[in-house]
């Protein structure tokens, strides 16, 4: 499993973020530190079609996206995280940026709002649900603005997909007469990893449907097995719906800038009366989010590459500019869009929205783990060096204990997040830090990695495995600093191994596609991720002697990156609540809808800790005591 590379911020900005840490937190149990893969900046802009007269939509911009002008031209509806980082709500403002008003503000993920032609109703996507079986899934709702009355259109007893499979509903759009809402959905598809099912992160198959605003009349508009059809928009005369179309596998490359030219898509429309398809484009560009400017002209976004920007099916000149989520105004003279960036990086300890009110949520770099004497060790991946650091939970005392460069690693791959010093682990006595050093993820098939350790003061670094078998992701027995568990990977040998550092003897714990082991604080269990023979990724636990193997997650979606909490619960990143948006629209991310969950060690009492639109992972609970 890959992780997006954060590059380019200064050490000063990281230190400034650390200085804002607030642990312990008054009135809370403590702090939940976690990693979030999402842009750090997103701002709405409006400009003429040639790019001139560009201006920022809101003077008081926070983190806004998915802006859309109302059919009457009197409001811009958009999603904002101004309440808190990661908490997406729906607001509106006048086109000149004044009159900011909240429309939908809840702890759920609320997104992709659009006003009806008469301006009285709002269709939007939300993860709220009054039924526990569908709670946390993306569904389409309609808000009657004058009365505040809500109507759920999808995820209801009469409109839902097969249980246990993807069942999300995205990007609603009103018909010009206000009688229908078109949308994309992955209902009744399968959980499929990238690279033909081999990967942990999922691809996405979408079809286009429409439904009446009262929840009746569900009708399939367009579908193509093995393809993703997304972001539907109506023609002004209401006779056609346009959308982008790509293979299911291409939805993986569409959120990876290193796949430029390898994830093509086309702009397609369908005539509602006859079902006749028209393909409007060709070539290898990644083309997304089309919209009719008239009954004959279509504008669309090219994402990534030298042609990135706005293009048209007419002879209108393109606007080559780095932008996202275009929405053309009805008069065809202007376009609203967002500018997103991962720079500067999201600061360490930046406050995040907390869904569990007993804990204070904050942002953290990757692979954090706490020593018994209260020090955090982690991989500093955000700055692109993937070295090992330690510090207090309040950010003080930060020091580098191992530099990944100087050990023969390809610096370009280190900066891209494919190499470095990953998953540090404290010895029980707090004197040593064990970690993996080498190449990771897709590189493991052709490159090497080994287990290393270093003293907490940065001295005594030594390699513990010889590198003949790719070895990584270690964890130390809390009761025995000379015993570690780690995973190996080669054509002939896979699984978890336990090493006795006093003798360097290695014993086999498991065999197969097992990864990311972690020793429980009480020393009784080792948790890990297993890729089963059916292609599903699940969380397992096992005793260190190889007995009592137990599967603790069973959902058909992917579960992974499991870690222990201080009180011997298991936290992990999962995807059973499905996509929160169309996968191809995300930026530089992997499992773009991964949420953090927690459960008892035996797999009981599973519950969500995050409900964001983004990829959340690698949590650690830091109690006030």
TrEMBL record:
Key words of the record: Signal
Keyword Signal listed: yes
InterPro entries xrefs: 6-blade_b-propeller_TolB-like, WD40
UniProt xrefs under SUPFAM superfamilies: Tricorn protease N-terminal domain (SSF69304)
Domain of life according to the entry: Bacteria
Signal peptide, first to last residue: 1-21
PANTHER family: DPP6 N-TERMINAL DOMAIN-LIKE PROTEIN
Name of this protein: Uncharacterized protein
């Amino acid at each position: 499993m890959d992780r997006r590379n954060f590059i380019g911020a200064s050490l000063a900005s990281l230190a400034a973020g650390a200085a804002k840490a607030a642990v312990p937190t008054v009135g809370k149990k403590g702090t939940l530190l976690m990693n979030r893969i999402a842009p750090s900046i997103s701002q709405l802009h409006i400009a003429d079609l040639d790019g001139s007269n560009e201006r920022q939509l809101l003077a008081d911009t926070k983190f806004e996206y998915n802006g859309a002008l109302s059919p009457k031209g009197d409001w811009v509806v958009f999603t904002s995280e101004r309440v808190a980082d990661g908490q997406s709500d729906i607001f509106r403002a006048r086109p000149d940026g004044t009159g900011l008003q909240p429309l939908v503000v809840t702890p759920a993920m609320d997104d992709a709002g659009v006003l009806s032609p008469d301006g009285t109703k709002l269709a939007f996507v939300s993860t709220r649900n009054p039924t526990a079986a569908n709670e946390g899934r993306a569904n389409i709702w309609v808000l009657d603005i004058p009365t505040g009355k809500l109507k759920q259109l999808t995820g209801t007893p009469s409109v839902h997909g097969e249980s246990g499979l993807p069942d999300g509903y995205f990007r609603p759009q009103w018909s010009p007469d206000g009688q229908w809402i078109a949308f994309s959905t992955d209902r009744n598809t399968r959980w499929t990893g990238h690279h033909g099912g081999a990967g942990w992160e999922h691809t996405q198959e979408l079809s286009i449907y429409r439904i009446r605003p009262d929840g009746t009349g569900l009708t399939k508009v367009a579908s193509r097995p093995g393809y993703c059809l997304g972001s539907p928009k109506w023609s002004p005369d209401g006779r056609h719906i346009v959308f982008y179309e790509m293979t299911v596998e291409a939805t993986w490359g569409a959120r990876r800038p290193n796949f430029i030219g390898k994830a093509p898509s086309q702009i397609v429309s369908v005539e509602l009366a006859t079902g006749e398809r028209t393909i409007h484009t060709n070539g290898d560009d990644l083309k997304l989010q089309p919209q009719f400017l008239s009954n004959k002209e279509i504008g669309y976004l090219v994402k990534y590459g030298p042609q990135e920007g706005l293009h048209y099916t007419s002879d209108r000149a393109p606007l080559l500019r780095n932008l996202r989520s275009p929405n053309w105004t009805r008069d065809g003279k202007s376009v609203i869009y967002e500018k997103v960036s991962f720079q500067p990086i999201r600061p360490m300890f930046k406050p995040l929205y907390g869904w569990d009110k007993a804990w204070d949520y904050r942002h953290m770099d990757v692979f954090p783990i706490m020593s018994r004497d209260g020090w955090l060790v982690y991989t500093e991946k955000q700055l692109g060096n993937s070295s090992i650091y330690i510090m207090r939970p309040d950010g003080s005392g930060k020091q580098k204990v191992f530099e990944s460069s100087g050990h023969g690693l390809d610096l370009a791959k280190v900066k891209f997040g494919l190499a470095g010093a990953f998953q540090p682990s404290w010895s029980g006595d707090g004197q040593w830090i064990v970690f993996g050093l080498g190449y990771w993820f897709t590189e493991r098939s052709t490159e090497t990695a080994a287990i290393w350790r270093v003293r907490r003061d940065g001295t005594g670094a030594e390699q513990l495995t010889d590198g003949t078998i790719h070895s990584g992701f270690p964890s130390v027995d809390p009761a025995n600093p000379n015993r570690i568990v780690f995973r190996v990977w080669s054509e002939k040998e896979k699984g978890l191994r336990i090493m006795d550092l006093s003798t360097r003897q290695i014993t086999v714990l498991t065999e197969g596609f097992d990864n990311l082991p972690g020793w429980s604080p009480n020393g009784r269990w080792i948790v890990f991720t297993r890729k089963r023979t059916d292609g599903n990724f699940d969380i397992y636990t096992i005793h260190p002697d190889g007995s009592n193997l137990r599967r603790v997650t069973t959902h058909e979606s992917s579960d992974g990156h499991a870690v222990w909490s201080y009180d011997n619960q298991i936290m992990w990143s999962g995807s059973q609540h499905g996509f929160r948006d169309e996968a191809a629209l995300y930026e530089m991310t992997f499992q773009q809808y991964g949420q953090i969950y927690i459960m008892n060690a035996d797999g009981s009492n599973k519950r969500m800790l995050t409900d964001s639109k983004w990829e959340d992972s690698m949590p650690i609970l830091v109690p006030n005591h």
